[in-house]
């Protein structure tokens, strides 16, 4: 069975998304030398999860209003309502409103300022 081990975010303006994800999720970014590539640290190494990378977008970006046609990484957070409010405050959008995954969690899909979709989930066995 294959597991996700890394993710990448493509950005029209890398610093805009670095600032966005740093403020929204507390992620840290470190540039790889002189390359246009930033490593993303999403949490402590002794906790479950994966890290990723951010690089400049090449070519056309996401098209507003089209169905999801790519992988979506979902991040487990403590407070979905607070994250949705913060996302809007930071210039993000809403791709899928908050919904229950019955008996498991609350889920929403947001967009970052560059149109990338990110899943946010708050574990809650009473959801539904």
Keywords, separated by commas or semicolons:
single chain, 128 residues, four-stranded mixed β-sheet, 2 helices
Please, could you describe this protein's structure?
With 128 residues, the protein is of the alpha/beta class. The chain has helices at residues 14-25, 80-89; strands spanning 6-11, 28-31, 38-41, 51-56, 74-76, 93-101, 105-111, 117-123. The longest helix has 12 residues, at 14-25.
Radius of gyration: 15 Å
Shape: globular
How much beta, percentage-wise? Answer: 35-45%
**How confident overall, as mean pLDDT?**
89
Distance between the termini: 30 Å
**SSE run:** EHEEEEHEEE
Point out poorly predicted stretches: none
Provide a short characterization of the protein structure.
The chain is an alpha/beta fold and 128 residues long. It has 2 helices and 8 strands.
Helix and strand arrangement:
Elements: E1 6-11, H1 14-25, E2 28-31, E3 38-41, E4 51-56, E5 74-76, H2 80-89, E6 93-101, E7 105-111, E8 117-123
Parallel strand pairs: 1-4, 5-8
Antiparallel strand pairs: 2-3, 3-4, 6-7, 7-8
